[in-house]
Amino acid sequence: MAIEIRPVSQAETKEYLRVLPYVNGFPQEEPEPSAWYAGSAAWLPQVQKTPAELEQYAEELLTDWFRPQAAFVDGKIAGGSAIVSVQVTVPGGQQVALGGVTSTAVLPTYRRRGLLRQIMSAMLDDCRERGEFLAGLSASEATIYGRYGFSPATFQHRWEVRRTDVAFRSEFTDPGALELVDHAVAAEVWPVLHEQVRAVRVGEISPLPGKWDGLGGLPADGSGPAHHLIHRDATGAVDGAAIFRLPWSPDPEQAGVLQVEAFEALTADAYRALWGLLLDFDLTKRVVAARRPVDEPLRWMLTNPRALKLTRTRDNLWLRVLDVRRALEARTYAATDSLVLEIHGEGRWRLDATPDGADCTASDAQPDLSMSVNELGSLYLGGVRASELSYAGRVAERTPGAVSRLDALLRPDRAPHNAVGF
Ligand SMILES: CC(C)(COP(=O)(O)OP(=O)(O)OC[C@H]1O[C@@H](n2cnc3c(N)ncnc32)[C@H](O)[C@@H]1OP(=O)(O)O)[C@@H](O)C(=O)NCCC(=O)NCCS
């Protein structure tokens, strides 16, 4: 069979869409409405499209931010994936270009023949040529992408709480105010709020074009209209917002569940005020929230911290460092120190790190620490500690104390988190 790996042309977009799992109708791994909200992202929504809609989608597929590659076998597309051009916030606040791998699929009849390996290699080369020194993805299965150097860097929780178990430790007097708004107001609030959030949140991703367009849309699963809640500070400026649904169900067990689809707060006041209302909503029994950060402060507001039950914990953004020097120089550090890092296959680097930035230079000195690019990807945003990876046998300490020193450099203020994906 003759295999050719190359970008998809406009004339080939319809054929390319054929290989995407959504179009194929394959079950998506987590078809949970509260995990998905609005916007025409690279993934097709989970509803059957009409031929006319697919035609339209194919027409508009190629943009300057969506870069699909395909494997052509004997001239026909047998597999594909794409890079979306987004940004990720790194420690210190710089928003750097990230090649986001998405929409990956190989037709069942062509799997396990190395097509994804070749597509991935072409896509990562493309990122390097464009100067993107980080690539990222979210993985449907955790066993696929490690071989390409990707490794989990941010994590997320889903939790639920029964309303009858909620009691706050202290009274809270809100210096600001909560307001229910319609989706037109929400559509103005969310883009601005998210920009403010991602300026300070390590790991957060820039939204794809169209992300905030569908805030009033009804989900295909009948989970009801989105409600929009915002919080204003004492000056009237919006400093937090939530999107929630109250799906109707004939099943009494499922009825009365308030689904929090999105939640952002720039201040502690907004955070406390928004959760205060959502967790004590009349006629509801339970609140469920997905895609939440692993260091959610909410449990510390409750008299019974166990009331908040984690129902899912999983990796979110996987990172692949494509240029060690540029990546290590793009972030700031929690301390001042120098370490020589050996990154298998990517060279040996002397990192001179400070709270204001770093110099990273090729070195032939004895390394203080050795690891692969996978471990570097997990450590990079500060969401995983070197000591954890060292205990797991994945980071080798060549100089006594070097693991703790690296941890001291990479220590994050908050757990890295991305509420927005791609
Ligand atoms: C996942 C998928 C894209 C892989 O494509 P593929 O062309 O079969 O992959 P390759 O033949 O290039 O395999 C490369 C390597 O990955 C391994 N691999 C492939 N699919 C895997 C899977 N689902 N789980 C674990 N390992 C897998 C192969 O064994 C091979 O390993 P090796 O390099 O050690 O020999 C394809 O199986 C698929 O379309 N699956 C359904 C859709 C899906 O899961 N998409 C991912 C969305 S994140």
From TrEMBL:
Protein's recorded name: GNAT family N-acetyltransferase
Keywords, in A-Z order: Acyltransferase, Transferase
GO biological process: aminoglycoside antibiotic catabolic process
Oligomeric and partner information: Homohexamer; trimer of dimers.
Active site per the UniProt annotation: 145 (proton donor), 422 (proton acceptor)
PROSITE patterns per the UniProt record, alphabetical: GNAT
HAMAP family named among the record's database cross-references: Eis
NCBIfam families: PRK01346.1-4
GO molecular function annotation: aminoglycoside N-acetyltransferase activity
Pfam families, sorted: Acetyltransf_17, Acetyltransf_9, SCP2_2
Chain sites annotated for binding acetyl-CoA: 112-117, 140-141
Domain N-acetyltransferase: 3-175
Recorded family membership: Belongs to the acetyltransferase Eis family.
